[in-house]
Amino acid sequence: MRSVCSALLALVCVGAQADGLRLLAQRSPLAGAQYHRLAEVWPQLTVGDALTLEREPGNRHDARAVRVLWRGIMIGYLPRAANFEAADEMDAGARLSARIGALMPDPDPWKRLRVDVWVELGR
User: Fold this and answer.
1) Would the pLDDT of 3 be above 90?
2) What is the pLDDT, as a whole number, of residue 42?
3) Which domains does the chain have, with CATH numbers?
4) How many CA atoms lie within 13 A of 82 on its CB side?
5) Does the pLDDT at position 54 exceed 50?
6) For residue 96, with 0-12 CB atoms within 10 Å meaning exposed, 13-18 middle and 19 or more buried, which class applies?
7) pLDDT at 45
8) Could you tell me where the beta strands, DSSP code E, fall in 3-65?
9) Picking from 1-15, 58-72, 85-99, 107-121, which range would have the lowest pLDDT averaged per residue?
10) Residues 113, 123: Cα–Cα separation, whole Å
């Protein structure tokens, strides 16, 4: 992700102001929702809502864990199989943001919410 972001940042910044630009870096299901508070806040969620990503390097199951919060409430994680780049970018100081990309009332918790992760290119 870093090399792609660096190349795009260079292209965008040459001769242009990069204020407010962002790049969609990842789309992932929400992992672990059944163990956190997704069900509790489900009726209040809307596609496009901002999510907060927080690194959890002390997680005993995954040293690259990235928590996903909605309005300060823990609702799950980025999946272990898909968190490598986001964790590395966050550790390197990159500005990442996230939003709810899709909601689906599915019995399978892996299909209920899609997290869209963005790299903030300027501000």
Assistant:
1) no
2) 97
3) 2-120 (3.30.70.2330)
4) 15
5) yes
6) buried
7) 98
8) 22-29, 50-55
9) 1-15
10) 28
